Amino acid sequence: MTDTETFRQEARSWLEENCPPSQRTPREGETPPAWGTPEFTAEARQWHERCADKGWTCPTWPKEYGGGGLSNQEDRILRQEVGRIGSMIPGGSFGTHMLGPVLLEYANEDQKRRFLPDIVHGRTIWAQGYSEPGAGSDLASLQTRAERKGDEYVINGSKIWTTGANNADWMFCLVRTDPDAPKHEGISFILFDLKSPGVTISPIELISGASEFCQVFFEDVRARADNLVGEKNRGWDIAKRLLQHERSMISGMGVGGGAARSGGAKKRVAKQHRGLADMAVAYVDVEDGRIVDDALRDAITQNEMDTICLTLTMKRAGEEAKAARGPGHTASMFKWYATELNKRRQEILVSALGTQALGWEGDAFAPHELQQTRSWLRSKGNSIEGGTSEVQMNVIAKRVLGLPD
Ligand SMILES: Cc1cc2nc3c(=O)[nH]c(=O)nc-3n(C[C@H](O)[C@H](O)[C@H](O)COP(=O)(O)OP(=O)(O)OC[C@H]3O[C@@H](n4cnc5c(N)ncnc54)[C@H](O)[C@@H]3O)c2cc1C
User: Fold this and answer.
1) pLDDT for 56-91, tens place per residue?
2) CATH assignment of 3-104?
């Protein structure tokens, strides 16, 4: 038996033994439940802990930082085997998908040892402190200041649209450390505890009544100077690298992407297609197994073909990116395409379901119809977070196509 076959056998038996039955049937498009949420049941916790102890929540990270130390090929096999039993790698978070990879690339040894194992085990929940009231698409205009005082930085300013800050422990944050330098050159990337004195977290209530976002205020917040990652004033490079990982993650959340990253690619995409057509046919006229409305049938077929093309392209690019140690500017292409495709998919579903997809609450709507309304609305945010579609097109024009500014 070759080494990879041995690894497959070992992974298969370990998964059979350790993955609880309740963790083998995730719903389509669902990300594994996060710590502290009601979905994070005792078995979800057990599954998470077992994988984390083996380093398999972050399979390719080096073992000395808590990762699995797997090669890219072993990682692929592991994901295939996880997909085979209908499960998912648990513990996906801003830490595992965004911060961890940039710490591996830019942090010093002490920082890696202090922060990475807690990400692997889900012990620290991270929030992203990038956007400010006056700095969204033009992120480099950010004004939150950090001044060095002794062996600390003192931070003043505010961040907005900070997803989950009210449930997070720590923040990775972009701060201005040289107000006189050109705007991209005076920014640093720093980490600090959100329980520090001077941090105020105000959830922003949405029209739905939920509070997914927060505005976070800093008044003389003190962060250890040795929590500044990379060189002082060179944080913009780290910020951009993290955005590539974020964009890659977001394209993975939408149509086809989760499938592209996981071993159960074909199965998941097939399920997703069935989902689109199945859901539609329950609400529209069908004759001889065909949706009667030509325009709707066409839209569904086109969406399915686009999804397959995207999935295959992402899979190929994902393999190339792993060989090249992570995503590059092409992450903007996928982020733009996957989120716009997902919006079209949601529009198709709303037009098929008609007024049943426009409910907010009440007995007149089935739970999946109410969920559809929310998924349709949520898909709009998908093409804004991590940089809007227009911003992705600017990156593609400049960095992928090489067009002049
Ligand atoms: C669901 C969700 C989660 C988020 N989570 C976080 C988070 O955790 N942490 C965080 O820091 N931020 C987060 N954000 C904020 C997000 O990064 C910003 O909303 C985004 O970068 C856009 O910034 P803005 O809202 O200030 O819009 P603006 O920058 O004001 O843009 C307004 C409009 O102008 C367009 N535009 C702006 N500049 C250009 C240009 N140069 N060329 C062409 N068009 C342009 C934009 O495309 C957009 O349509 C989140 C946003 C959403 C929707």
Assistant:
1) 999 999 999 999 999 999 999 999 999 899 998 998
2) 1.10.540
